[in-house]
Amino acid sequence: MVVTKGCAIEATAVAAWSFPRTLSERLDTGGMSRARAHLELVSVVVDCRAALGVGVRDQGVSALHDATEGGVLGGLVELARSSACDLRVERGKIPLSPEAEAACAMFGVDPYWTLSEGSMIGAVRPNRVAAVLEALGAEGVAAAEVGEVVPGNGAVWLTEPGGNVSRIEGVPGDPYWAAYDRAVREGWK
Q1: Coil vs helix vs strand at 128
Q2: Separation between Cα atoms, residue 146 and residue 88, nearest integer Å
Q3: Consecutive 10-residue runs of the chain (189 residues): their mean pLDDT?
Q4: Structural contact between residues 88 and 147, judged by C-beta atoms closer than 8 angstroms
Q5: Of 182, 161, 149, 18, nearest to 81 (Cα)?
Q6: Does any domain span residue 160?
Q7: Alpha carbon 56 to chain centroid distance?
Q8: Would you state the pLDDT for residue 171?
């Protein structure tokens, strides 16, 4: 399993452009510039072209998914369920930028489960992962191998940095929308 760009891509862009004063309390000037640049990452077109250029099905990529609502973890669960396979994923390998972490802390949401349009999740044949990562890198797309596809019936087995493993079968509602609504009602700037 390969994930591009990381968690909360769109949530970070929205935070930086809609509530810059509030987010700047958590980020310095450079961090704010990087958070605003997340807006340019809200697409998976380049990611998909690069990954698919390596090959499809047995020659490379067997599934792709844009992690929008529900975030990267939600997208992984959706892929597992639609493929009727299980995914073994390590949370510590899923990219999370300091800017996304700050934006999600500001909103009070989990960055792994929130709006992440622009993050592509790909199921890639093990012998083609290095080629896919190289192709993505050549296009300037950051990516990481985060886990593997294993036999099962549609669950994600998430290993935490401390070693605890949890089984995830459902996608909770994306917490972003309620957080955004609260920010608007409270008049964040």
Answers
A1: helix
A2: 8
A3: 97 98 97 98 97 95 94 96 96 98 98 96 97 98 98 97 96 92 97
A4: yes
A5: 149
A6: no
A7: 22
A8: 86
Contacts of 7 (CB under 8 A, 6+ apart): 71, 72, 94, 95, 96, 97, 100, 104, 111, 112, 114, 116, 119
Residue pair 52/123 in contact by the 8 Å Cβ criterion? no
In the chain, the number of structural domains is 1
Bridge partners, residue 6, by sequence = none
171 within a domain of the structure (yes/no): no
Angle at 118 between CA 162 and CA 31, to 5 degrees: 70
In a domain, 158, yes or no: no
Residue 20, domain extent: 2-72+95-146
Phi and psi of 51, rounded to 5°?
-65, -45
What is residue 64's predicted lDDT score, i.e. its pLDDT? 96
Q: Tell whether 151 is covered by a domain.
A: no
- What is the per-residue pLDDT for 173? 87
User: From its phi and psi, is residue 125 left (phi > 0), alpha (psi between -120 and 50) or beta?
Assistant: beta
Element (H, E) at 3: strand 2-4
CA nearest 3: which of 104, 108, 92, 102?
92
